[in-house]
Amino acid sequence: MKTLNIGMIGYGFMGRTHTNGYCQANHFFDLQYKPVLKAVCARNEEKAKAFAQQWGYESVETDWRKLIERDDIDAIDVCTPNNLHKEISIAAAKAGKMILCEKPLAMNTAEGEEMCKAVEDAGVRNMVWYNYRRVPAVTLAKQLIDQGRLGKIFHYRANFLQDWTINADVPQGGAATWRLDAEAAGSGVTGDLLAHCIDTAIWLNGGITDVSAVTETFVKERTHAETGEKKPVKIDDACSFFCHFDNGSLGLFESTRYARGHKALYTLEINGEKASIRWDLHDLHRLEYFDHSDDSVVRGWRSVHVTDGDQPYMGNWWVPGLQIGYEHTFIHQVADFLKSLETGEAIGPTFRDALETQKVCDAVLSSAADRAWKNV
Amino acid sequence: MKTLNIGMIGYGFMGRTHTNGYCQANHFFDLQYKPVLKAVCARNEEKAKAFAQQWGYESVETDWRKLIERDDIDAIDVCTPNNLHKEISIAAAKAGKMILCEKPLAMNTAEGEEMCKAVEDAGVRNMVWYNYRRVPAVTLAKQLIDQGRLGKIFHYRANFLQDWTINADVPQGGAATWRLDAEAAGSGVTGDLLAHCIDTAIWLNGGITDVSAVTETFVKERTHAETGEKKPVKIDDACSFFCHFDNGSLGLFESTRYARGHKALYTLEINGEKASIRWDLHDLHRLEYFDHSDDSVVRGWRSVHVTDGDQPYMGNWWVPGLQIGYEHTFIHQVADFLKSLETGEAIGPTFRDALETQKVCDAVLSSAADRAWKNV
Amino acid sequence: MKTLNIGMIGYGFMGRTHTNGYCQANHFFDLQYKPVLKAVCARNEEKAKAFAQQWGYESVETDWRKLIERDDIDAIDVCTPNNLHKEISIAAAKAGKMILCEKPLAMNTAEGEEMCKAVEDAGVRNMVWYNYRRVPAVTLAKQLIDQGRLGKIFHYRANFLQDWTINADVPQGGAATWRLDAEAAGSGVTGDLLAHCIDTAIWLNGGITDVSAVTETFVKERTHAETGEKKPVKIDDACSFFCHFDNGSLGLFESTRYARGHKALYTLEINGEKASIRWDLHDLHRLEYFDHSDDSVVRGWRSVHVTDGDQPYMGNWWVPGLQIGYEHTFIHQVADFLKSLETGEAIGPTFRDALETQKVCDAVLSSAADRAWKNV
Amino acid sequence: MKTLNIGMIGYGFMGRTHTNGYCQANHFFDLQYKPVLKAVCARNEEKAKAFAQQWGYESVETDWRKLIERDDIDAIDVCTPNNLHKEISIAAAKAGKMILCEKPLAMNTAEGEEMCKAVEDAGVRNMVWYNYRRVPAVTLAKQLIDQGRLGKIFHYRANFLQDWTINADVPQGGAATWRLDAEAAGSGVTGDLLAHCIDTAIWLNGGITDVSAVTETFVKERTHAETGEKKPVKIDDACSFFCHFDNGSLGLFESTRYARGHKALYTLEINGEKASIRWDLHDLHRLEYFDHSDDSVVRGWRSVHVTDGDQPYMGNWWVPGLQIGYEHTFIHQVADFLKSLETGEAIGPTFRDALETQKVCDAVLSSAADRAWKNV
């Protein structure tokens, strides 16, 4: 068994999901490589130690530059807020480390281009944690599309609806709510949520040509969690856009954190000439499928419970009817990454894949600001 | 256009559904016969007149015997409580009238047999209003079964769950609540609700051999609506039974008026070797269909929205996607009955069909009383 | 009983729905006025006669001008293609007739303004058949909003998805497919489908300020049904737009006839600070309702089966659990119109209400043409 | 951190689920004890070694008696076919080991009683892996019932429907299909599937008084996987029963492996005077809840997405909207067991709890054999 020594930067929500992926991949997948939890890095040493203790990291660092220099680290996992992705990734690339970076790739396209150049110049393996590609039902959707089952595509629509910031007393900034602080997050729902929808969309339906968007910030001021000061909110609370895809289909996207009743309603639907598919994160183990070639009197949307051994990834889990959950998307991504070390083939989404998503996000924000269509 | 002169006995809930069927059938179906609302009969003349006025009956009677004697009446529609079905039907048969009798056929099998003999001796057309056979989705189920799409049947299950008698203050007896009075109704949920399930089951899956049942009366005493007296409740509040069908499949049936949250949840499901179907009155325009021959990775229950022109009855209504409702089952039954006058072919359910259901109901009640299996 | 003498122009799909409304309203609603089917008018006399025969119209006209002149007609029902709405309505107004006009009001805002002026100058009652307001679940939504249950509104979204024109062999023009011919229909999905969504939206959520839209025509040429000639398709096959409402909420609308698997998927969802609601024409008797004030551990979307006597219109139909269908929306509209004759109060949607929808439709088409935001 | 040294007997499907529980509990729950994977035991040494390698067991045994004698083992996990549960458990109890035994407890009640006596005489901690109690939605159901939210209970119904043995070519006996061999399994769906339903039912709704059952074996002969011989099938392919609970409610249970289209449809529903709940393993993260005290016009079944921090176990996982899956029930059971070592309080289901389920299973099989009601 070959090892892959992991150096993790950050210990928050995403630190847990990735680490769990490293712990579980080899239990369920037959792989030649096995991740070793070498070190976790965070400025707060006490918290880093507690995290290391809970998950079994062998050591702790408080300076990410030092972590990157360590010879016993093969891969750097970047789980910091978005405004540190660039600096860390470029440094890690220069140090010859593989990089697994949390999404979105960067604060903007310019940063993303620098990062792509860095990893490509250094020739290091790189990947971005757009995890939803590896929900079995979504991977199945990809297979169905690649098999040509949908025929010519007319419509792609996706939304990501939440409701956790409706209360105007939710602060901005700091550990739990940096996603509301434009300085740490870059943007609001566009980079946080729509980026997921866009990554999946490009993967499933190809490139996006141009976009027209609208954004809204419903709560104009929020207290900053660290300073206690009331400050203008500069992120987008909600964003909708339509677009053209290279294949001629129309796209429609929406995201908000003000959709009362929706916790994390990421849905996507694709309408093709011959068939349509639909998926919903709230019941992620199901794929809805409509096949126009079915006998007309019994034609209807099929609710496919994606838990059988012949469906993506599911042969590695339990038996038909028994579902898996959110965290498994990260386990699958780790397993695929480890497999790619065996085969030598790159797997997506790479930094360059993620740069495409970044470009669409930038075009969306620019379109909303200028109230005009923008090319990607 | 030939006419069919209707004499309706009763003006309650079922009086409305049947009369609406007579009014609407010719608007939507191409028929040679047209019902004429000749007379409605009820003891309460004032209420009968109001009903006649609202629906366009030409005349009113207060004595059903007189109605039966009228030469200008072709068909008697029996919408009284169950304890009058026998007497009226036999008299009508003797008078040579066609009879359309509300379900259940009778208070018990013995009565039902007399009634069958009467209509068959007289050679008059007869029909019982088991209306759910003519929900388009249920009729479609019948077609699918007859086409052999399900293969060998293993399981048939049905339930009819309501919650309207949970409150112990609901009285028994009288106009609105005669269904809780054993003298008027014969039985409780067995004759009222399970009879529907059994009629459909026999139609779809064939005869029932033997049954084992349990009944329960949760509220032991209720005030009688007419006398104000507190009296023991003699009907069954709930009834479950299992059975064997002639084709070797197992049946499981349940009905209750104490299932909080269910208004009229009549569901049925049939599991065959090759396919399964499922239906629910609460969304009556949908049929769930599972076909094992579908490609395995996209196999799942299909939700068929039964509103297309090639699905039963729907070519006579609107356009795909636009649903019809409860009352349409009676319109379909009227249309089919009128059509049968053209073709000369009997249509079900006839009195004799309904007698089979009556026999099962009797066996169920007897089994529950004796805590033993009973042959039908 | 007072009478309302109806003169119907057109006998197509909408002729049937309206006529059925006239036939049924008094069977189920307690009203002082009763419609009388005086005359139906169409250029094709034979078809008009067949229609009159089937539904009971007393007479037939082939020239709508003659119908309008008849003294025995109280109300003109306009069921023609859109390009005749203006001329007929203005003539009928001048003749002092009440007017019940099929939607959309007109070919464009300019026509609509003339029509409003005509009916208001003449002081005649007028109404437009935006029937979906009177689906019980939608009317219930209106009541919940008016009660303030949703609080401040953040998002309104609606779509109307169909799939019946995917096949490029579907012709344009003529009786069945005039909706694909820009000369008869004015626009494609915008006037046909989005107009419904917009009418409901304005009713539920107030006026629309500005819009940004995109349209697409997937099939560029279709044969004309009457000439057999291949002609460019000038209608919009698909249209999406976002908008701001006067109340500060964001709107998102989409319609298409290329969404494989959807027959008539008209859905709407409103997200408020305190509660959200959702509705779907495919299961029109249900309203989804999420109330944030519910105890958190059992909080969830409620599936409300809108069939109880205390829910809008349902006290006039059957018993809880038994659903009604599409055609009932027209019966309700007739009943409300008849009631308004008793009370003297106008009921919506009036021509002026429908003009607001027309303005939004025009802004949408103009925005799509210019790729720019447009004020309404 | 204190350790709990595990000795696992068996390495099949259940060996994986339990072992995963031991690996994951401390990653997500704050506990003073931590399981250590000391040894896995199986007759096939090669397979045992492969399993040990994959999951990190420190050693391998091929004789379970030897494992039980080892001083470095604190707890024995019994994952063998049912016919070995008794012998191993009694030996382990005598050796003073804690025992975590896969369900069902035993081949029959007599065995179960011996086992209970053994663990109670020895005073060793004991637990049976009825894992479905610890689906968060099911645990929430228990809390709602204990809070009195449902009021008096009228009905409890549950089913467990599968379709994997329809094909008559599926063999009996051996590693993958010992569940079809009566000698290894004791019974068919009764012990395999209904036992789960019964355990949950007793936990949620109290003891069962008497039962009436029917069983069926659809495929009469199957080839034995090990001998290749065609032998009579002695297990029950399907079983239904009704029962009375001590609290006066009626129970209705059904299980089969011949319900085409259902992979593992374990559903339960409880109807109380004040509220009802419903759950389905196929979407295990949802609980349906109907509360009669809701305002009547917006009353409906709530679909509760049980993923919030204030719902059972979910504070230890991700964020609202992100679901967990099947394997987590075992992680929860491990976590609760470890916690019980801290608190000293026993947690269920104990051997004695499981004995109650065994008694009901025996009564069910006896009732079916004799076609008569049986007391439990």
Automatic annotation (TrEMBL), chains A, B, C, D:
Gene3D superfamilies in UniProt: Dihydrodipicolinate Reductase, domain 2, NAD(P)-binding Rossmann-like Domain
Superkingdom as given in the UniProt entry: Bacteria
GFO/IDH/MocA-like oxidoreductase domain sequence ranges: 140-278
Keywords noted in UniProt: Oxidoreductase
Keyword Oxidoreductase in annotation: yes
Keyword Heme set for record: no
GO molecular function annotation: glucose-6-phosphate 3-dehydrogenase activity; nucleotide binding
Domain Gfo/Idh/MocA-like oxidoreductase N-terminal, residue spans: 4-128
EC assignment: 1.1.1.361
Parts of the chain that traverse the membrane: none
Name of the molecule in the record: Glucose-6-phosphate 3-dehydrogenase
Species this chain originates from: Crateriforma conspicua
